[in-house]
Design brief:
two-stranded antiparallel sheet, DNA-binding, DNA-binding transcription factor activity, 153 residues, WH_DNA-bd_sf, 7% strand, mainly alpha, single chain, 6 helices, Arc Repressor Mutant, subunit A, MarR/SlyA-like, HTH_MarR-typ
Length: 153
């Protein structure tokens, strides 16, 4: 009996594309001395100064313990400062330092080059279609996750 190869599944294509994007950004960010996770955290912090670590973890789609490690490294490198919230002393507000703003500007220019290079591989119509198709993927997967037993919506 001859075994037939398992056809590739759509999920494997999505995962490989996401991994390739992450690897390309990691390579682009290396000269800025940033990881993709650090870059994402700095980018969200620049748009949401004072955001909590828990909210930042959700925005960057990582676990809170992972975000705490990212923030610890960013703080040790002088890129962020964390201060107790004015009213809620157990919540640390996180903000970029001037050095963090400079490093983010460098990293963002590098990451944007990757994004623009990727976008250039498609016509405007293809990009629009790709974004719409990926949006449908996301909607389906989020609804499928909330339909699982034991999950709360």
């Amino acid at each position: 009996m001859t075994s037939m190869p398992v056809p590739e599944r759509l999920g494997s294509h999505l995962k490989r594309a996401a991994q390739a994007l992450t690897a390309a950004k990691q390579s682009a960010l290396k000269p800025a001395h940033l990881t993709v996770s650090q870059y994402a955290a700095l980018l969200h912090l620049s748009r949401n100064p004072g955001i909590s670590a828990a909210a930042l973890a959700r925005a960057c789609a990582v676990t809170p313990p992972t975000m705490n490690t990212v923030l610890k490294n960013l703080q040790e490198n002088g890129l962020i400062e964390r201060t107790p919230h004015e009213w809620h002393r157990n919540i640390l507000e996180t903000r970029l330092t001037e050095k963090g703003e400079r490093v983010l500007a460098d990293g963002d220019a590098r990451a944007v080059r990757v994004e623009r290079g990727l976008a250039a591989e498609f016509s405007p119509e293809e990009r629009e279609t790709l974004v719409a198709l990926l949006g449908r993927c996301i909607e389906f997967l989020q609804s499928a996750r909330s339909d699982q037993p034991g999950e709360r919506g």
